[in-house]
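Researcher: I'd like a candidate sequence for this fold, 447 residues long. If you have to choose between options at a position, lean toward the conservative one.
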């Protein structure tokens, strides 16, 4: 029933946005009407927007309102003001009013996306996750030291790890349950169907081949200790050292990016080619803790947790805490900048401080928004702190996409009315976010 209600609301709000400005025939004559102001200047789908001006039509049907080129339903009309409903997925842009085919353009409206949350799977505790080209989702179950797969059909199956006891930690290569991991964090899938695992406790990257065999992919076996030891060294992947690797991401060229948390660096592993093993290089970080922006190899980080790479090669990464931040490494300049921290975080329309206590996963939306899972400080005691998925728009506007209700809140629904016990890593698939929360895989569709 909750899913039906949420879907119905989206339908009602979006039904009015099927016709865009370019489908209208406009007059070349200048408009007689004009827009002086709008209120509010930012908001979400379903909000009421008041447009003040002069010489609008008193007949509601003769006024057409657009927000960023998306048609909005007009509720009330007079010669000096109009009220309209903000349509779903409008995006940020100018508000305009068309009367008698003449268009008057007004101020900019900032659109804050709202997430519609549904449960995709139950009984699936998870940490990191990644999708393959068939839309199967591989998930890390860190407490079981295992990797599972949720098929596109919804069926859940075991892949590897855990030993015969089902939750044993250790280091061993082999098939299925014979393979052992030590508190793995994240996964990534390449174009050939190989699944890569950041084996955090074993300080290395493991690979699960399509036939199910688990092997050491990047790192150095140390037979004296029984598993790879922490360290820092670039070079061929079978000679490189890592220290507690966390988030993983694979780009379209099958380059594997690694958040090397213990070394406080971002690393990249190129794919094998011409019978040569891939090479590990450091692309950002000095090894020192800090928050210094600037050239990537001179910048400093703290507790790098997750990362994502866009089609232009820009890297967005999260730092979990001390302090929690989101950073960007620009591909064209190689410069690191901070796009979210305690000093810059201001919430949506109000501009009030929006302080993330910790940040986990990160994903990119097709509209250019950056999405992060975060634990956010509330307005009162720690009892008002909440787990949310937040949006960072291209203009750095921060807003809550979903989550924020207390423990009595529903697990499905719309926006901040939903309760997340916690969230972790994020992925974007088919225009929706997926994340794990308290033995559930949830789907969050931005609207």
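Model: Candidate sequence:
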């Amino acid at each position: 029933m909750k899913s039906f209600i949420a879907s119905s609301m989206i339908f009602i709000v979006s039904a009015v946005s099927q016709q865009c400005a370019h489908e209208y025939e406009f007059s070349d004559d200048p408009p007689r009407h004009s827009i002086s102001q709008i209120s509010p200047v930012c908001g979400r789908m379903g909000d009421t927007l008041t447009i003040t001006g002069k010489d609008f039509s008193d007949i509601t049907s003769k006024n057409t309102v657009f927000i960023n080129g998306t048609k909005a339903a007009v509720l009330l009309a007079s010669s000096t003001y109009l009220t309209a409903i903000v349509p779903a997925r409008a995006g940020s842009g100018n508000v305009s009013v068309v009367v008698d085919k003449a268009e008057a353009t007004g101020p900019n409206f900032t659109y804050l996306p709202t997430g519609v949350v549904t449960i995709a799977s139950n009984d699936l505790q998870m940490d990191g996750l990644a999708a393959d080209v068939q839309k199967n989702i591989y998930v890390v179950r860190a407490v079981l030291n295992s990797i599972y797969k949720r098929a596109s059909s919804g069926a859940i199956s075991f892949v590897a790890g855990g030993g015969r006891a089902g939750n044993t930690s250790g280091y061993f290569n082999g098939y299925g349950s014979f393979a052992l991991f030590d508190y793995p964090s994240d996964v990534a899938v390449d174009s050939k169907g190989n699944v890569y695992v950041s084996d955090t406790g074993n300080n290395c990257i493991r690979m699960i081949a399509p036939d199910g065999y688990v092997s050491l992919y990047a790192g150095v076996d140390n037979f004296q200790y029984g598993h790879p030891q922490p360290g820092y060294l670039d070079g061929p992947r079978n000679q490189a050292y890592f220290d507690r690797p966390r988030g993983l991401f694979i780009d379209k060229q099958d380059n594997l990016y690694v958040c090397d948390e213990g070394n406080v660096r971002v690393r990249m592993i190129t794919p094998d080619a011409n019978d040569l093993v891939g090479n590990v290089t450091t692309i950002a970080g000095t090894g020192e803790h800090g928050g210094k922006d600037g050239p990537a190899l001179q910048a400093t980080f703290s507790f790098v947790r997750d990362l994502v790479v866009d089609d232009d090669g820009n890297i967005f990464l999260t730092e979990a805490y001390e302090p929690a931040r989101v950073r960007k490494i620009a591909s064209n300049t190689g410069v690191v900048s901070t796009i979210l921290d305690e000093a810059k975080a201001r919430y949506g329309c109000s501009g009030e401080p929006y302080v993330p206590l910790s940040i986990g996963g990160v994903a990119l939306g097709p509209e250019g928004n950056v999405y992060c899972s975060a634990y956010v400080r509330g307005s009162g005691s720690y009892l008002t702190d909440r787990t949310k998925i937040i949006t960072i728009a291209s203009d750095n506007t921060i807003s809550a996409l979903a989550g924020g209700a207390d423990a009595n809140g529903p697990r499905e629904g719309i926006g901040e009315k939903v309760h997340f016990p916690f969230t972790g890593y994020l992925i974007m698939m088919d225009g929706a976010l997926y994340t794990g929360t308290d033995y559930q895989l949830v789907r969050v569709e931005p609207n």
